[in-house]
Amino acid sequence: MLRNTAMSTDDAVVLFDVGAGQAKGSREFQEDRCTIVRPEQFPAETNEKLVFLAIYDGHGSGLVAEHASKRLHNLLSKRPEFEKGDYVAAIKGALADEDALLLESFKNDSTEPAISGSTAARRLTEAHKPETPSERRRIEAAGGEVTMRSGIARLGDLQYKTPVNETQDTGNMPRERRLSSSSSAVRGDFVSNEPFTSRRTLKSDGRYLLVIVSDGVSDRTDDVALIQHVMKLAMRGMRASEIAQEIATNSTRSAKSDNASCIVAMLDGQRS
């Protein structure tokens, strides 16, 4: 979430342009979702102009990514921490609220939320990958284990979170999608909804470029090359949506490509 101060102040940073692009790649379905909420669309009245940008990288199906993309920013705006200006705590609380809604859906409507998942992608944050030593330790301490599938360590569905992982009855859940865990008697959340957050202060004499991508893009290039390419296209006068679409399309040209999603945002300080 970005803070965009009012245009009347001397230190204003304004959202100059923003746009999203997606490509399905070689996957059967597009399971990613993009959310762009401009200041005039933000679902809460504040003294500041706020911009909400997020990519939800779905897997198993697009159900959870779709659910989160439509609700998370609304949940955020209703958090008591949000009203106090504590946006970090509000983001954490909103993610917990979204998890709770998915759990209710699992209990009352369908088992699909338990076998479908999503991440919220921001490259300024730290990747929560199962093979990361600290994350592996947390998973194993909770009673789970990290296994490799086709050379990739994967976790990320509601079935890996309490209280769903405490029950032995997985209903109509396919056998190949059921939880594989250690024999630990005490289970915690094998997958955490606790986000890594960071804060950046934008200056009124600067110009800024924010690029948010799913792993269908980031796995195909490195950060430096990606930003340099986006800057080159921006200097040619391309709009943010055009740049984002080119990034997504180019990321899916090779065989066995993943869903690719990209959001490009350009921000200018009034004195830049």
TrEMBL record:
Keyword Oxidoreductase listed: no
Bias (Basic and acidic residues): 123-137
Known EC number: 3.1.3.16
Metal-binding in keyword set: yes
Enzyme class: hydrolase
Superkingdom assignment: Eukaryota
UniProt cross-references to InterPro entries, sorted A to Z: PP2C (IPR015655), PP2C_BS (IPR000222), PPM-type-like_dom_sf (IPR036457), PPM-type_phosphatase-like_dom (IPR001932)
GO molecular function: metal ion binding; protein serine/threonine phosphatase activity
Obligatory cofactor(s): Mn(2+)
PANTHER family in alphabetical order: PROTEIN PHOSPHATASE 1G, PROTEIN PHOSPHATASE 2C
Similarity remark: Belongs to the PP2C family.
Identification of the protein by name: protein-serine/threonine phosphatase
